[in-house]
Amino acid sequence: MSDELGRVRRMWHLLEPLHAVLYYAPEAFEEAAALGHAVDERWPSYFAWRAAPLGEAGADRVAATFFSFSPTMIAGYVPAGWSVAAPEAVLAARTRAVDRMYRSLFSDRVHGPEFAEAAGLARRAAQAADVTDRPLAQANAALPWPDAPHLVLWQAATILREHRGDGHLEALVSAGLGPVESLVSFAAVGAARPEVFASRGWSGAEWSAARARLLERGLLEEDGRATDAGRALRAEVERRTDELASDPWDALDPAEQERLVELLGPLWVEVLGSGLLPSETTLGIGRV
Question: How far is residue 48 from each of residues 38, 63, 86, measured CA to CA in Å?
Fold first, then answer.
């Protein structure tokens, strides 16, 4: 991996937890419950929070943009969730949830100069992202920017992670990996245990069929581990993903990028130390 692409991936590693903590924070579940969503599991609020920028998107639209989730699973939550709360109400509640969550995690630091500096740098990168043909990034980039620096930081992190995610889907499709194949192949290189990927809702039969297709392509061993070709393909997918995620960071010079790393590091530690995020996720951060 080139130094430049390594920096792109490092930025993702630092920003992703700052975005993803929304899906696990108690404040977010409280806001979701106030909207009328069931909170005995995280999926009703997850699909609402993440899909709301798309408007009243149907199940097909959400399945296409979320990619790795089973359409059957998605159809259980979308579009039914919009009858519980319209996207506009969800977005307002999402902002409240982020505000409360970050204040709980970071206390008075959200008012400090370092938070404002980090937010300003991240926002410059997010606003430089080319969101053409990147639906989730484009939808979030079209939202009005909040005033408070901690809300700006979360929105910038969200635009940047969805920009990367949209590009990741392009890289997967170019590699001939459909939704289930992408999960099976990722598990095969040790990104996470197959049981973790079961959260995406695919049946055992669908998983087995995808595994058989990868075996036929010479990408898997019989025991489910990746072959050399399988590891090479996944490495190329990740390299291409980093490449497609690089353009926002051209807005910051190397010194500004290093300063943002310095500012984000303590926040990253705080989020991981909160215990809110699971120790093993489908993203494979730190393992691939």
Answer: 11, 13, 9
**Calpha distance 126→166 (Å, rounded):** 14
Model pLDDT for residues 153-200, shown as the tens digit of each residue: 999 999 999 999 999 999 999 999 999 999 999 999 998 787 888 899
Low-confidence spans in the chain with pLDDT less than 70:
1, 282-288
pTM of the model: 0.95
**CB 120 within 8 Å of CB 256:** no
Inter-residue contact 86 to 80 (CB < 8 Å): no
Is residue 221 included in any domain, yes or no? yes
Provide CB contacts within 8 A for 157, sequence distance 6+. Answer: 15, 16, 18, 19, 122, 126
pLDDT at 5 (0 to 100): 84
Let me know if residue 235 belongs to a domain: yes
- Write 227-231 long-range contacts (CB < 8 A, 24+): 230/185, 230/188, 230/189, 231/189
pLDDT of residue 279: 80
Position 104 in a domain: yes
CA angle 44, 49, 52 (to 5 degrees): 110
C-alpha to C-alpha distance for 168 and 157, rounded to whole angstroms: 16
How confident is the model at residue 1, as a pLDDT? Answer: 55
Bridge partners, residue 226, by sequence: 220
User: Does the residue 282 lie in any domain?
Assistant: no
Buried/exposed code over 244-274 (b: 16+ C-beta within 10 A; e: otherwise) = bbbebbebbeeebbebbbebbeebbebbeee
Total number of domains in the chain: 1
For 28, the 3-state DSSP assignment is helix
CA distances from 83 to 36, 59, 69, 80, 93 (A): 10, 14, 21, 6, 15
